[in-house]
């Protein structure tokens, strides 16, 4: 057999093709070839089969593969089960651990692992590695702040080790991102290290006259003691004497929240007075975790009918008689330790609410302050200028959760917890100074930062800022809204697993009604996108049960789902509810609502009602071309079926003339031709539609 010679140009092409990546068999190992095509799952198996699979290099390569597979949990399993290496290999192991924790959403642990990795790197390598990790500068900033706030709330033996960790993270921050923030916070938490520290006190824009007088503070303390006994009317009378409008409004809002769980609807008094922190407190709703239950704020044992009756009897007595009754009970050898604690706490609340500060002070110094209801802790802090750490719960997690609330409320009551590092609670400054106040003058002030981020998010919401809010302010409604924003964004982008991750970070049963609705809405849409229609219907029914307004697009999607399931009457109810709220909808959505209402009536064999919706849509929304023309086409079919051929043809002619899609034009033209065939040729001389039968 004779072979023709290969054309020189073709030969050159073949040579180039063989030299292309992935085809040069003598240049790449199978592992390299798999890595080129990012076949990470196969590559991990190849690494595991190696004879040196337990060698440090192979272990690290396997962990890296799992990170490339977006399986940080498996990568972390390998990393944490591996003993520490030496030098550069240990730096790589710890760095991969940091990346794995970051992939799992645990930013605090990620930063701590990165910090440990830095101990095995040179300064140049630290700057290179840390500087090239995406968004690590903002993460480092936020994690350090959260650690610092946790450190402030820590009154246990671990405080010193926590300070060491803070300093380590700080040192890396200064080394890699040597900016104003890191230099400022360094001087704040390590005063005396610089000769300039003593010369740079914060100069915030504050009211010329303190908003809260000593008398106001005592009155607020009395009111909080009264609330601990659930004497809301007494507390309201005490608060009503506060002279300043903003101060009065703030503490009235506290009373309302503790009674109902609802934050104030109107924050104008704080906005008009430029009280940035007071506005941020409610706009971000730091009390959101207590929206469902305020039991921790009140004194008593609701499970004990005997105690409740005894308490109610005490409340009807004069202060002297009540005090005598309490002392008689405390002198009994038969009462339990729990009842004794309740009685002492009751004595404190009663004496403090009645303005008997001398008796209250004696009781205050003889009780365990860390177990008091929150109202009484705050009352004692204000009345006796107690340090916050003396009243925090023994559990570090509980202390961390309560600390920012007590810090803000004590400041609102006239006693600042951190006068050197935080602006006074009633600082008055224009909103355009928020950035300077929160980033330059008071970078450690939690409420000012919350106010600034709220301002930024309101102007230009973004995924990046929502992530930071969700991490740093996870215990406020602002942080929860950040998670909901992230979930919504992920669902819209069809990244359903990520959307579920964000939703699952939220404690749904504890949410206030408005946030619960947003959570259920995101969950419904997530379930619809996942194809779990039955589950979506169950979630939607929970949404309707809340009584809160339902987002219009979710209602529309559920209405269409009901139509698909042939539950037409239920679908019509949803669509009619949308139509009732049409003033809030775009004209396109109004037109679409009418169309689906017509479709529903047609499916239920109510052509007259369907025709009403179709014609109203075509007349009222001619600019919404796709819906108007489709409605005219549907209406023409009804008229054709009824023998109203001329009306049907007129509608179809408009569809042919205005349709943007070729298929729609052709379908309408086909119907016109079919109608013409049914009508036959017109009789000679016939000029109108009137027919004489004889």
How would you describe the overall organization of this protein?
The structure is a single chain. By secondary structure, this protein is mainly alpha-helical. Among the domains are: 1-27, no CATH class; 38-187, Serine Threonine Protein Phosphatase 5, Tetratricopeptide repeat (Alpha Horseshoe); 214-412, no CATH class. The chain has 36 helices and no strands. The termini are far apart. Residues 1-25 and 194-209 have low confidence and may be disordered.
Helical element count? 36
Helices and strands: which structural class? Answer: mainly alpha
- DSSP summary, beta strand count: 0
Biggest beta-sheet profile: none
Please state the overall shape, judged from the principal axes of the Cα atoms. Answer: globular
Rg on CA atoms, Å: 35 Å
Question: Overall mean pLDDT score?
Answer: 85
Give the terminus-to-terminus CA distance.
Answer: 92 Å
Poorly predicted segments: 1-25, 194-209
Strand content: under 5%
DSSP helix fraction? 55-70%
Short account of what is shown:
It comes from Pseudodesulfovibrio indicus. With 694 residues, this protein is mostly helical.
């Amino acid at each position: 057999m004779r072979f023709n010679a290969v054309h020189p140009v073709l030969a050159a092409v073949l040579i180039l093709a063989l030299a292309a990546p992935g085809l040069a068999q003598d240049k790449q190992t199978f592992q390299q070839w798999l890595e080129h095509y990012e076949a990470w799952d196969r590559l991990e198996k190849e690494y595991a089969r190696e004879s040196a699979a337990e060698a440090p290099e192979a272990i690290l390569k396997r962990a890296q593969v799992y990170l490339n597979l977006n399986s940080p949990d498996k990568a972390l399993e390998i990393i944490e089960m591996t003993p520490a290496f030496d030098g550069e290999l240990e730096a790589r192991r710890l760095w991969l651990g940091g990346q794995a924790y970051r992939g799992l959403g645990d930013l605090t642990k990620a930063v701590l692992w990165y910090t440990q990795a830095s101990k095995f790197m040179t300064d140049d390598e630290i700057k290179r590695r840390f500087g090239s990790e995406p968004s690590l500068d903002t993460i480092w900033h936020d994690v350090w702040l959260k650690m610092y706030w946790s450190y402030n709330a820590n009154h246990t033996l671990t405080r010193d080790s926590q300070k060491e960790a803070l300093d380590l993270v700080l040192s890396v921050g200064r080394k890699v991102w040597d900016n104003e923030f890191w230099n400022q916070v360094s001087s704040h938490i390590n005063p005396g290290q610089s000769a300039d520290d003593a010369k740079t006190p914060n100069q915030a824009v504050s009211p010329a006259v303190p908003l809260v007088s000593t008398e106001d503070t005592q009155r607020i303390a009395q009111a909080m003691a009264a609330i601990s006994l659930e004497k809301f009317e007494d507390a309201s009378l005490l608060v009503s004497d506060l002279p300043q409008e903003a101060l009065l409004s703030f503490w009235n809002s506290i009373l309302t929240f503790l009674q109902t769980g609802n934050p104030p609807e109107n924050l104008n008094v704080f906005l008009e007075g430029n009280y940035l922190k007071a506005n941020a407190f409610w706009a971000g709703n730091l009390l959101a975790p207590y929206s469902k239950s305020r039991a921790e704020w009140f004194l008593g044992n609701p499970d004990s009918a005997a105690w409740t009756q005894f308490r109610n009897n005490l409340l009807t007595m004069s202060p002297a008689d009540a005090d005598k009754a309490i002392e008689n009970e405390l002198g009994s050898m038969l009462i339990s330790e729990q009842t004794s604690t309740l009685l002492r706490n009751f004595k404190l609340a009663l004496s403090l609410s009645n303005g008997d500060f001398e008796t209250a002070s004696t009781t205050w110094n003889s009780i365990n302050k860390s177990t008091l209801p929150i109202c009484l802790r705050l009352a004692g802090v204000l009345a006796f200028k107690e340090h916050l750490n003396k009243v925090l719960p023994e559990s570090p997690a509980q202390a961390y959760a309560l600390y920012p609330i007590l810090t803000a409320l004590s400041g609102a009551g006239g006693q600042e917890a951190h006068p050197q590092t935080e602006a006074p609670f009633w600082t008055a400054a224009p909103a355009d100074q928020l950035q300077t106040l929160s980033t330059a003058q008071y970078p450690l002030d939690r409420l000012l930062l919350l106010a600034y981020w709220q301002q930024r998010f309101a102007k230009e919401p973004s995924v990046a800022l929502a992530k930071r809010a969700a991490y740093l302010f996870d215990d406020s409604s602002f942080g929860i809204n950040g998670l909901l924003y992230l979930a919504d964004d992920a669902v819209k982008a069809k990244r359903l697993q990520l959307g579920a991750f964000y939703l699952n970070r939220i404690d749904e049963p504890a949410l206030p009604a408005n946030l619960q609705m947003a959570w259920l809405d995101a969950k419904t849409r997530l379930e619809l996108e996942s194809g779990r229609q039955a589950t979506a219907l169950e979630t939607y029914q929970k949404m309707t049960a809340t009584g809160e307004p339902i987002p219009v697009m979710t209602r529309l999607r559920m209405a269409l789902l009901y139509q698909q399931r042939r539950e037409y009457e239920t679908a019509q109810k949803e669509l009619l509810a949308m139509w009732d709220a049409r003033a809030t909808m775009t004209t396109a959505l109004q037109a679409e609502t009418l169309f689906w209402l017509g479709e529903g009536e047609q499916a239920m064999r109510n052509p007259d009602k369907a025709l009403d919706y179709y014609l109203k849509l075509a007349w009222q929304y001619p600019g919404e071309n796709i819906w108007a023309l489709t409605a005219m086409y549907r209406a023409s079919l009804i008229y054709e079926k009824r023998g109203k051929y001329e009306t049907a043809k007129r509608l179809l002619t408009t569809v042919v003339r205005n349709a943007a899609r070729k298929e729609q034009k052709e379908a309408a033209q086909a119907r016109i031709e079919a109608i013409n065939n049914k009508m036959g040729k017109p009789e000679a001389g016939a000029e109108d539609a009137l027919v004489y039968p004889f």
